[in-house]
Every structure is written in structure tokens, then in C-alpha cells.
Design brief:
Helices cover 40% and strands 12% of the residues. By secondary structure, it is of the alpha/beta class. β2 (49-53), α2 (66-89) and β3 (101-105) form a beta-alpha-beta unit. The protein starts with 6 loop residues before the first strand and ends in an 8-residue tail after the last strand.
């Protein structure tokens, strides 16, 4: 489509929990998660950098923990920033992309503020 560089974000969550699905959305969500995992090699091949926030400890409907999820995304992006800064300093036609290099951030403890 003409993009010179591609930054992808992958939120690999776990839909399945201990025990049986609670409702139809759990079943559908797990099916989509499996399909996404099986097809990830296709889009990863087109990405220069893949940012993967650590979301393993979160449920798909963990809205009450939005602040922690945002923090996890921030940490992952901060880890990817050196590569993004190199993009900005180097013209795209002469740079060598870091094809599908995963950047994973570990969750940080949230402050009580």
C-alpha cells in the first residue's frame, strides 16, 4: 500500500480461562484468538517492528484494569522507541528494516496513586 515502514502491535491475550466457557462470547473469542495466532506469520512478515505488550495476565473483558493495560502498552512502545528513532534519522530507502523483530514488555507494578 506504499508504507515505507510498518510498526505492528500484537495483543496476544488469552481467551480461555480455567474451566468451561461462561457464554457464547467466550467460545467465539477463543476461536478468533486461535485464528489470529495461526495467521500471525503473514502479517509479521510485513512488519518492520512488532510491539507486543505483556497482556497474558489480563482477561479479554478486564476493563477495570485499563490503567494497567495502558501502562503495559507504554512500556512496550518505550522499548521499541530506539528502533523508531533510527527510522526518523535514516531515510527509508537506505535503511535496513528489522523485519518482524518482536518487542515484548514485562508488566510493571502499578503505583497506588
Amino acid at each position: 500500500m506504499g508504507a515505507e515502514r510498518v510498526l505492528a502491535v500484537h495483543l496476544k491475550g488469552q481467551w480461555s480461562k480455567d474451566g468451561a466457557p461462561r457464554h457464547l462470547f467466550d467460545v467465539i473469542g477463543q476461536a478468533f484468538a486461535i485464528a489470529q495466532d495461526q495467521m500471525s506469520h503473514l502479517w509479521r512478515g510485513a512488519a518492520d517492528v512488532v510491539v507486543e505488550p505483556e497482556v497474558a495476565g489480563f482477561a479479554y473483558d478486564d476493563f477495570k484494569r485499563a490503567g494497567e493495560l495502558i501502562r503495559s502498552g507504554e512500556l512496550a512502545m518505550r522499548k521499541a522507541m530506539p528502533e523508531v528513532r533510527r527510522w526518523l534519522e535514516t531515510p527509508a530507502e537506505t535503511s535496513v528494516p528489522a523485519k518482524a523483530r518482536a518487542v515484548v514488555a514485562s508488566p510493571a507494578p502499578m503505583s497506588a496513586d
